[in-house]
Amino acid sequence: MPGHKMGRVTEDIKRELTAIVREMKDPRVSKLLSIVRVEVSGDLSYAKVFVSAIEGRDKTAESVEGLKAAAGFIRRELGVRLSLRKIPELRFLGDDSIAHAADISKKLSDLNL
After folding, report:
1. CB under 8 Å to 33, separation ≥6 — which residues?
2. Where are the domains positioned within the chain?
3. Which of 27, 68, 106, 112 is deepest in the core (most CB within 10 A)?
């Protein structure tokens, strides 16, 4: 059942990344940063981490730069917290889904007036 294991590993990585990002002290990384989803390759070599900040696209892009600079530290912390044979190389990508959802919600509330 490789699908079940991949799903479990993906969720474990997402949970631990959320905790690690909240503990980071880099001023570029937003305190309101959310990890939207994680996509892990089949051989656990790479993981795409999609992040979004409530403040908007500019803050998301700035946070991604901070996360890329700290990728080695984050990967090491992930290795300490998870008992995996291979810790994937992390690739951080910006995702504006939270800002998009807030925009849609605002438009819908304006329609109800």
Report:
1. 21, 51, 52, 53, 60, 63
2. 2-111
3. 68
DSSP annotation of 70 = T
Structure tokens at 85: 């044979």
Which positions ≥6 away from 62 have C-beta within 8 Å? 28, 30
SS3 39: strand
Q: Where are the alpha helices (H) located in the chain, listed in sequence order?
A: 2-23, 57-69, 71-81, 97-111
Please calculate the CA angle 14-42-38 and round it to the nearest 5 degrees: 20
Tell me which CATH homologous superfamily contains domain 2-111.
Answer: K homology (KH) domain (3.30.300.20)
> What is the pTM (predicted TM-score) of this model?
0.83
- Enclosing H/E stretch for 72: helix 71-81
What type of residue is 96?
D
Point out which residues pair with 37 in neighbouring strands: 50
Burial 16-41 (b: 16+ CB within 10 A, else e): bbeebbeebeeebbbeebbbbebebe
